[in-house]
């Protein structure tokens, strides 16, 4: 049973806008960390290395977007662990609009990421738990995604005997994750229980072991920046976006080279209008994918 979940937002990144394609991975909407962000990542590694061994993460799981992988890598290296690239922790893209604007990009493939990191730094055996829909998500759907992700993560950790994990993701996603862990509800517009989400900030959730708290999660750190010399920076919350926010896709003719293939079919319809891919009985549509 998972007993301790650390949740980190990626470090200070380069600015990005619209469909711009960035160097390094050559993927759209995938900016790199600034030099300051790399320093923040090193501070995170020092923090985790300073913890007693019994409190250190046993798995370091990161969104596949490069800024998150860059943030998590120093910690994984310091702890002697491989990075586990997980698309279920991906960035939140609001619903693609107008309808003819195409889809949002998937995060980089494992093969693309391996070119940017030392040999064997990234696990090839980690099977993705979940994929976000390329059609985008409402704030409510994002919270359903994180709830589903946590359910799958707990089952995976139970299977392999892991009790402590570190998750590295993006501002909106870590806010939704925190609420999902604490079973705190959020409105359809994403407003709700406040989770800190500054760059390279750290939240810690611990599961109770005794008495009335047995099985219940407590938040011991909420967007803490005590490990960072400059403190909290680039704090974000759902008040920063309109309640009905949308975002253009990559264009109707854009072909995504990083779109994964499912085991049961090559041409995937990821979301149909009449389906909710995040419902509890969604089945294997977003699970068991392989690159």
CATH evolutionary superfamily:
Phosphoglycerate mutase-like
Largest sheet: 6 strands, mixed
State Rg.
18 Å
Number of strands: 6
Q: What is the CATH top level name?
A: Alpha Beta
Number of domains: 1
* H/E element order: EHEHEHHEHEE
- Given helix and strand content, the structural type is alpha/beta
Strand order, main sheet: write it out. Answer: 3-2-4-1-5-6
If helices are DSSP runs of H or I spanning 4 or more residues, what is the number of helices? 5
Helix fraction, binned, reads 10-25%
Mean pLDDT value: 88
**Outline, from the CA principal axes?**
globular
Instruction: Give unreliable regions as ranges.
Output: 263-291
CATH third-level topology: Rossmann fold
Terminus-to-terminus distance: 28 Å
Examine the secondary-structure arrangement and name the CATH architecture: 3-Layer(aba) Sandwich
The fraction of residues in strands falls at: 5-15%
Task: Summarize this structure as a short list of keywords or feature phrases.
291 residues; His_Pase_superF_clade-1; Phosphoglycerate mutase-like protein; 5 helices; disordered C terminus; Rossmann fold
Task: Summarize the model shown.
This protein is α/β, with parallel strands linked by helices. About 25% of the residues lie in helices and about 10% in strands. This is Phosphoglycerate mutase-like protein.
């Amino acid at each position: 049973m998972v007993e301790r979940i650390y949740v980190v937002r990626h470090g200070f990144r380069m600015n990005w806008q619209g469909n711009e394609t960035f160097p390094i991975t050559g993927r759209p909407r995938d900016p790199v960390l600034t030099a300051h962000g790399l320093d923040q990542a090193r501070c995170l590694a020092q923090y985790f290395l300073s913890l007693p061994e019994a409190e250190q993460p046993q798995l370091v799981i990161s969104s596949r977007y490069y800024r998150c992988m860059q943030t998590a890598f120093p910690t994984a290296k310091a702890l002697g662990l491989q990075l586990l690239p997980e698309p279920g922790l991906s960035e939140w893209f609001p619903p693609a609009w107008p309808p003819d604007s195409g889809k949002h990009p998937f995060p980089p493939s494992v093969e693309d990421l391996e070119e940017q990191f030392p040999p064997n730094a990234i696990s090839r055996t980690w099977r993705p738990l979940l994929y976000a829909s390329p059609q985008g998500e409402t704030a409510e759907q994002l919270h359903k995604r994180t709830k589903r992700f946590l359910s799958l993560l707990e089952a995976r950790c139970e299977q392999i005997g892991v009790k402590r994990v570190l998750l590295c993701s993006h501002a909106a996603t870590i806010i939704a994750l925190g609420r999902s862990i604490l079973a705190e509800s959020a409105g359809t517009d994403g407003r709700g229980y406040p989770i800190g989400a500054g760059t390279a900030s750290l939240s810690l959730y611990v599961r109770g072991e005794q008495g009335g708290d047995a099985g219940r999660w407590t938040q011991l750190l909420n967007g803490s920046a005590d490990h960072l010399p400059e403190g909290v920076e680039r704090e974000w919350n759902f008040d920063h976006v309109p309640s009905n926010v949308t975002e253009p896709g990559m264009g109707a003719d854009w072909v995504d080279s990083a779109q994964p293939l499912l085991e049961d079919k090559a041409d995937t319809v990821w979301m149909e209008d009449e389906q909710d891919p995040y419902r509890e009985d969604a089945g294997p549509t977003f699970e068991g994918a392989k690159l």
